[in-house]
Amino acid sequence: MAEELWVASLGQIAYGEAVAIQERIRAARQAGEVPDVLLLLEHPPVYTKGRRTGPADLPMGEDWYRMQGVEVCESDRGGSVTYHGPGQLVGYPIMRVHDVPLYVHTMESAIVAALGDEGVVAEVREGLTGVWAGERKIGSIGVHVSRGVTTHGFAVNVDGDLQPFQWIVPCGIEGVQVTSVYGETGRTGAMPDFRERVAARFAEAFGLVQRAGCVSFSGHMPGKGSRPPISVTEPSGGEPRPVPA
């Protein structure tokens, strides 16, 4: 019997809070206390700086971006700088993996399939990580693996404002253009259906059985040095499993 993938939709939460949630679930996954988990969410406007980000990738300077209402955050994921904001579906898989390149390729394939379900012809381009619609990038990927378990993941532009991408060098690719599901199809309000398509295609691509889980947390960032209390509720309606610190 196939193993399970617990899928939890968190709505819109701050980037730092999402990182804290991932870290707690990652520790539980490493300990074998929960199965693979996929968090689906949106962020308020934020630039995240991957490990390969250089000063030239943020040419306007971090203070200028913050004046435009866009937070700037460090990230331990791979890749360079990217933008997250409302109208973009972000996926954070916390999964046990053995082959990282295969994991990334499978994730890309799942996104391509979900976009196809929305009527967007998308593809993976050789030598470039992410998903493309023609010459325009529609999905980005950046992962981190610790003791065989992943954090971070993917982001797909659905119907959000793409202007902030023009203020940076997205993913470290000079001159790259970005697009969205709305830009390719003209349809608005696609997020709820697309979120379901991504969850289904992700589970299918990895050979897992999707179950709708629930991640409970405090809803705010606690004081320095502490983390929000989190529990992962079994989809069948069982008791919440506390994720230990």
Please describe the topology of this protein.
Blueprint: E1 4-12, H1 15-30, E2 36-42, E3 46-49, H2 62-67, E4 71-74, E5 81-84, E6 88-94, H3 100-117, E7 131-133, E8 136-146, E9 149-157, E10 177-178, H4 181-185, H5 191-205, E11 209-212, E12 214-216, E13 231-233, E14 240-242
Parallel strand pairs: 1-2, 1-11, 3-4, 8-10
Antiparallel strand pairs: 2-6, 3-5, 6-9, 7-8, 8-9, 12-13, 13-14
Structure description:
Strands 1, 2, 6, 7, 8, 9, 10 and 11 form an eight-stranded mixed sheet that branches. This protein has a three-stranded mixed sheet with strand order 4-3-5. Helix 3 crosses helix 5 (191-205). It has helices at 15-30, 62-67, 100-117, 181-185, 191-205, and strands at residues 4-12, 36-42, 46-49, 71-74, 81-84, 88-94, 131-133, 136-146, 149-157, 177-178, 209-212, 214-216, 231-233, 240-242. Helix content is 24%, strand content 30%. It has one domain (4-242): Bira Bifunctional Protein, Domain 2 (BirA Bifunctional Protein, domain 2), CATH 3.30.930.10. The chain is globular and about 50 Å long.
